[in-house]
Write a structure and sequence with these properties.
Layout (H helix, E strand, L loop, with lengths): L7 H11 L2 H6 L9 H19 L3 H7 L2 E3 L2 E3 L4 H10 L18 H14 L1 H20 L2 H13 L2 E6 L15 E4 L5 E11 L8 E8 L12 E6 L1 E3 L5 E4 L2 E6 L10 E13 L6 H5 L3 H29 L23 H37 L2 H37 L10 H9 L8 H15 L4 H15 L8 H27 L2 H36 L5 H18 L2 H9 L4 H4 L11
Parallel strand pairs: 3-6
Antiparallel strand pairs: 1-2, 4-5, 5-11, 6-7, 7-11, 8-9, 10-11
Helix pairs in contact: 1-11, 3-6, 6-7, 6-10, 6-11, 7-8, 10-11, 10-12, 10-13, 11-12, 11-17, 11-18, 12-13, 12-14, 12-17, 14-17, 15-16, 16-17, 17-18, 17-19
Family: Belongs to the acyl-CoA dehydrogenase family.
Cofactor: FAD
Organism: Marinobacter daepoensis
Length: 606
C-alpha cells in the first residue's frame, strides 16, 4: 500500500507566497501567536501525525469497519489509540478559544489540519470534525452555563459531538422535521424521534457524546419557522463536571455504506431523552446554520484531499509500472518497456489530478481567509462585519462544495484508471478512495442543492447578480495587472473574457427565469460548474503569477517547482478550462427539453 505524504511544499507556497497568510494573520487578534515559525511547526507536526498514525489505518479501517453490539459501537482496531494521540497533541482545540482550553489560533489553522487529516484518513477525521460543529454551535448560541459545561470537555477532546438534522422522511427539506420536544418543569425538555445519517452518533473514542438536535416544540409553527435547537448529551453532565446518568438516546443501527466504512454513520433514537434548549425558540435553523459556510468548506476538502491522495499513489505507480514503448521512442531502453509516466494519455490523467488538487487547495485557502475574518467578527460581537464576510463566503461555498467534490470524484476515478485492472483490486487502495469520495457530493446538500443555493438564492434572489459582479471585478482587476507579462498574457486575456461572459450569462439566465421558473433549476448545475472552472482559473493565474515572479527573482523553492507550477497552470487553461464553454452553452438551453416528456413516459417496460 502506498503511503500518504503531506504536501507541505505546496501548502507553504500558497500560504506564504500566493495568499500572504503571515500578513493576513497580523490583521487578526487570534493571529498574534500564528507566527511563521509556529505555523510551520504545526504543519510539520500535523503532517507527521497524519503520515505515521492516520494513514496506516486507512485501508485496515475500511476492511474492518465499525461494529454495533447492544447499542454500543466499536471503531476499527487502532482508532482509539490514534484518537488518544490526537487528544494528547491538543489538536482538537487548535482554533478553539483560550477561555475554554483551546489554543486560540485562527480558524484557518484548523482547516489546514483538517485537510491533512482528511486526506490521510477521511473516516477518522469525521469523528473530531463533527465535534467542531457542535463546539461552534454552543460557542455562538449557548448561554454561559452551557458553554462552561460542554465546551471545555469538547475542546479537550474528552467528549465528542454530533449534528442531528436528517430524519427518515426528510433530508435537505428540514421543514419536515418531526422530532418532538416537550418542556419540563425544571426547564429541560424531553425529545422523542429518530434521526438518520448521523456521523459519529455512537462510538468508543470519547467518554461522552453531545448531540445537537433539531426538534419541534408543541406549539411551534409549521415548516422551517417552527424548529428549535437542543443539546442532548449521551450522559447527562454530573454536578462536578463529570458524567451523570445515561440519557435515553441510543444507536438503533449502523448504515451499510458504499464508503467511509470506518466512520460510524448511525440511526439515532431519542426516546424521551433529556435535552436543553440552545438559542431562541423556533430559531433552530438560524442557529444551526450560523457556521454552515465554514462546514461546507470542510466538506469541500473531501474533493481536494482524495484528489491529492489518489494523485500521489497514481504518480508513484506510473513511475514504476512498465507497459509498451512511448510513441516518441524508447525512454527506458535498458528495460523491457517504458514507464507509464512516458505515455501522453497517462500524463493527461496525472496532470488533471494535479491541477484539481492544487487548484482546489488554492480555492480553499482563499476562502479560509474570509472565514478567519467572519469568525473573528462573530467572536468580537461585530455582527455587521460578520455578515459582510459571511456574504462573501456564502457566494463561494456552494462553488467550493459542489464543484470541488465533483472534480474530486473525477480525479479519484482517473487515479484508478492509471492503475488499470490493479486499480479495481482492493489491495491497492484506489477503489477505496473512489468509494470514500462519492459521499462528498451528497452530504451537506447534494451538488444540485448547492447549485440552486448559488444561482437561485445567492445570485438571483439575494443580490440580483451583484454577487457575480463583485467577485468578477476582483478577478478582472487581477487579470488586467498581468496583461503585459508575456508568460501570463494568454491566461490573463482568457480570464478577462470569462469574467465578462460570467456576468452576461447571469443576466441571460435572470431574464429567461422571469418567463419560465424552471429555468433556474435547469441551468443551476451548469452555472455552478461554470463558476467553478472560472474560479479555479483565477486561482491558477494567481499561482502562475507568483511562479513567474520567483523564477525571475528567486524564491525559497527550486526553479523546477516554479516552472512546474507555471506548466500546470497552462495545462489547466488549455485542457480543462475549455469545459466551461460547454456549461455556458448548456445553461442557456431551454428548460423545455428537460420537462417536455411526461413523467409516466420516461420509461416503457414490460
Amino acid at each position: 500500500m502506498p503511503v500518504y505524504k503531506a504536501p507541505l511544499r505546496d501548502m507553504k507556497f500558497l500560504l506564504n507566497d500566493v495568499f500572504d497568510y503571515p500578513g493576513h494573520y497580523q490583521t487578526l487578534a487570534s493571529g498574534e501567536n500564528a507566527t511563521p515559525d509556529i505555523v510551520e511547526a504545526i504543519l510539520t507536526e500535523c503532517g507527521r501525525f497524519c503520515e505515521e498514525v492516520l494513514s496506516p489505518l486507512y485501508q485496515s479501517g475500511d476492511e474492518e469497519g465499525c461494529k454495533l453490539d447492544n447499542g454500543e459501537v466499536t471503531t476499527p482496531k487502532g482508532y482509539r489509540e490514534a484518537y488518544d494521540q490526537y487528544v494528547m497533541g491538543g489538536w482538537q482545540g487548535l482554533s478553539a478559544p483560550e477561555d475554554f482550553g483551546g489554543q486560540g489560533l485562527p480558524a484557518s489553522m484548523g482547516l489546514l489540519k483538517q485537510e491533512m487529516m482528511g486526506t490521510a484518513n477521511w473516516s477518522f477525521s469525521m469523528y473530531p470534525g463533527l465535534s467542531l460543529g457542535a463546539m461552534n454551535t454552543i460557542f455562538l448560541h449557548g448561554d454561559e452555563h452551557q458553554k462552561q459545561t460542554y465546551l471545555i470537555p469538547l475542546t479537550e477532546g474528552r467528549w465528542g459531538g454530533t449534528m442531528c438534522l436528517t430524519e427518515p422522511q426528510c433530508g435537505t427539506d428540514l421543514g419536515q422535521v418531526k422530532t418532538k420536544a416537550e418542556p419540563q418543569a425544571d426547564g429541560s425538555y424531553t425529545l422523542t424521534g429518530t434521526k438518520i445519517f448521523i456521523s459519529s452518533g455512537e462510538h468508543d473514542l470519547t467518554e461522552n457524546i453531545v448531540h445537537i438536535v433539531l426538534a419541534r416544540l408543541p406549539d411551534a409553527p409549521k415548516g422551517t419557522k417552527g424548529i428549535s435547537l437542543f443539546i442532548v448529551p449521551k450522559f447527562l453532565p454530573g454536578a462536578d463536571g463529570g458524567l451523570g446518568e445515561r440519557n435515553a438516546v441510543s444507536c438503533g443501527a449502523l448504515e451499510k455504506k458504499m464508503g467511509i466504512k470506518a466512520s460510524a454513520t448511525c440511526v439515532m433514537n431519542f426516546d424521551g431523552a433529556t435535552g436543553f434548549l440552545i438559542g431562541p425558540e423556533n430559531q433552530g435553523l438560524e442557529c444551526m446554520f450560523t457556521f454552515m459556510n465554514t462546514a461546507r468548506i470542510g466538506t469541500a476538502i473531501q474533493g481536494v484531499g482524495p484528489a491529492e491522495l489518489s494523485y500521489q499513489w497514481a504518480l508513484d505507480y506510473a513511475r514504476e509500472r512498465r507497459s509498451m514503448r512511448a510513441l516518441s521512442g524508447k525512454k527506458d531502453p535498458d528495460q523491457v518497456a517504458d514507464s507509464l509516466i512516458h505515455h501522453a494519455d497517462v500524463r493527461r490523467m496525472l496532470l488533471t489530478q494535479k491541477a484539481i488538487a492544487e487548484g482546489g487547495r488554492a480555492m480553499l485557502y482563499y476562502a479560509a481567509r474570509l472565514a478567519d475574518h467572519m469568525v473573528e467578527a462573530h467572536t468580537a460581537g461585530d455582527e455587521q462585519k460578520a455578515a459582510k464576510y459571511d456574504d462573501k463566503l456564502g457566494f463561494l461555498t456552494p462553488i467550493l462544495k459542489g464543484f470541488l467534490t465533483e472534480l474530486g470524484c473525477e480525479a479519484t476515478n482517473l487515479g484508478m484508471q492509471v492503475f488499470g485492472g490493479h486499480g479495481y483490486i482492493r489491495e491497492h487502495g484506489m477503489e477505496q478512495i473512489v468509494r470514500d469520495t462519492r459521499i462528498a457530493t451528497l452530504y451537506e446538500g447534494t451538488t444540485g442543492i448547492q447549485a440552486l443555493d448559488l444561482l437561485g438564492r445567492k445570485v438571483l434572489l439575494m443580490t440580483q447578480g451583484g454577487a457575480v459582479r463583485e467577485f468578477t471585478l476582483k478577478v478582472a482587476n487581477f487579470a488586467r495587472k498581468h496583461l503585459t507579462n508575456k508568460p501570463l498574457r494568454p491566461m490573463s486575456v482568457e480570464l478577462l473574457k470569462l469574467t465578462a461572459q460570467w456576468n452576461l450569462l447571469t443576466v441571460r439566465v435572470m431574464l429567461a427565469a422571469r418567463k419560465d421558473r424552471d429555468i433556474v433549476s435547469a441551468a443551476a448545475n451548469d452555472f455552478l460548474m461554470y463558476s467553478g472552472y472560472v474560479t479555479m482559473a483565477y486561482m491558477w493565474l494567481r499561482q502562475a503569477a507568483v511562479a513567474v515572479d520567483r523564477l525571475n527573482e528567486g524564491g525559497e523553492e527550486s526553479g523546477a517547482f516554479y516552472q512546474t507550477k507555471l506548466a500546470t497552470a497552462e495545462f489547466y487553461y488549455e485542457r480543462l478550462l475549455p469545459r466551461a464553454q460547454a456549461h455556458a452553452t448548456s445553461m442557456l438551453s431551454p428548460a423545455r427539453n428537460l420537462m417536455q416528456v411526461e413523467p409516466e413516459h420516461l420509461a416503457f417496460t414490460g
